[in-house]
Design a protein that fits this description.
This protein has helices spanning 12-18, 47-54, 63-67, 121-136, 140-149, 157-190, 197-208, and strands spanning 20-27, 31-38, 72-76, 79-88, 105-114, 246-254, 259-266, 272-283, 286-298, 303-309, 316-323, 329-336. A hairpin with a 5-residue loop joins strand 11 and strand 12 (329-336). The protein is 27% helix and 31% strand. A five-stranded antiparallel sheet has the order 2-1-5-4-3, with helices on both faces. A four-stranded antiparallel sheet has the order 9-8-11-12, with no helix packed on it. Strands 6-7-10 form a three-stranded antiparallel sheet, with no helix packed on it. The protein is elongated, with a radius of gyration of 23 Å. It has two domains: 4-187; 246-339, Immunoglobulin-like (Sandwich). It is of the alpha+beta class. Helix 5 crosses helix 6 (157-190).
């Protein structure tokens, strides 16, 4: 196995190009407030930069509903924002009538990645959520208390102590997020399964971003790669041509029956088992499922047709293919009826 420690480490510039992590909470007086933005907090007061974060549909879904979901996604200007919400312990005095000190804190974690590498987001937000909850679930309210205390005009000795204690936890949280991000993208290129499509995407993208991945190459250059073509070196920087496991071959709108026909192909050379297809739409910030179909066997190069009803006045739909057992997202596509030729 290659030794990542002997290669060029991921620096702040590289990390910011790969992803941005937001740890937010719901403040009863101010609404959606960032506790931490990694790798840089400088944008937290920038309304334009924070717009997709504050209006992410994750805020409007009850915790009970979204707990059943792996995460809730928002696509905005070439980026995918993966969101996860949970409740944590609290012992701070609330600033709104009717709320007790024990009323749980609402925490939201959002990971932002470019569309080209959205495949990384599913595992990354899951790992961030699990590890942050494991280490900080009973401490996050102290960071919130510290942030609120910083607003005090007169800072007494008690207030200063709250700020100092909360800042220490905040720094530990930032260190954990940094470690998770670095380890995650490092592990992708440390894997020995070069035939993995995920790994090839990672290697290609990291290489194009100037990150040293030469440690994974054998003595004959790139002989370790499979024969799957990941990107075309003749393309301009930033233009990627990643090969997916699936491809949408055709989409038809059947006006008479008000149905949507989606023809999808397994582009791989192997059979895919235990897949699940979902088609959803979002209305009033809530995601609604309109098709849920399981596929036990999807043969190599086979094309399958999926038929879904069209909901009146809804033009945008989300098409997902997931692994039924581990719920990992294998393929996703937004379908805008306004952009289709209707039959």
């Amino acid at each position: 196995m290659a030794d990542w420690n002997n290669s060029k480490p991921l620096d702040k510039k590289h990390i910011e190009e790969l992803c941005v992590v937001y740890v937010m909470y719901f403040d009863e007086a101010r609404g959606h407030v960032p506790l931490l933005i990694y790798p840089d907090d400088k944008y937290k007061d920038n309304k334009k930069y924070m717009r997709p974060i504050k209006y992410h549909s994750i805020w409007f879904l009850p915790v009970e509903e979204q707990e059943a979901l792996d995460h809730v996604d928002l696509e905005y200007k070439g980026f995918i924002f993966f969101g996860k919400k949970f409740l944590t312990k609290s012992k701070r005095k609330k600033r709104r009538a009717g709320l007790q000190e024990e009323t749980p804190e609402t925490i939201v974690i959002i990971v932002s990645l470019q569309n080209d590498i959205e495949i990384f987001g599913h595992d990354l937000i899951r790992e961030l959520t699990v590890k942050i909850r494991e280490k900080f679930e009973d401490k996050l309210f102290e960071v919130i208390e510290s942030e609120i205390a910083k607003e005090e005009v007169i800072k007494t000795a008690k207030v200063k102590k709250i700020i100092e204690h909360g800042t220490k936890i905040h720094d530990e949280l930032r260190e954990l997020v940094s470690q998770i991000i670095t380890d995650y993208f490092s592990d992708v290129v440390k894997q020995t399964d070069i035939k993995s499509i995920n790994q090839q995407k990672a290697i290609s993208y990291l290489a194009l971003k100037g990150i040293d991945v030469t440690q994974i190459f054998g003595p004959q250059g790139i002989q370790g790669f499979s024969n799957i073509k990941i990107f075309d070196p003749t393309k301009k920087k930033g233009e990627f041509n990643f090969k997916n496991q699936f491809e949408i071959m055709q989409i038809n709108v059947i006006e008479d029956s008000q149905e949507l026909e989606i023809m999808v192909k397994n582009t791989t050379e192997k059979e895919i088992n235990n897949a699940k297809v979902n088609i959803t739409h979002v209305k009033d910030y809530f995601e609604k499922e309109i098709l849920n179909q399981e596929i036990d066997f999807w043969f190599a190069k086979e094309e399958l047709l999926f038929i879904s009803p069209i909901i009146p006045h809804i033009n945008e739909y989300l098409f997902f293919i997931k692994n039924k057992e581990n719920k990992k997202n294998l393929f996703s596509k937004k379908i805008d009826l306004n952009l289709l030729d209707k039959n």
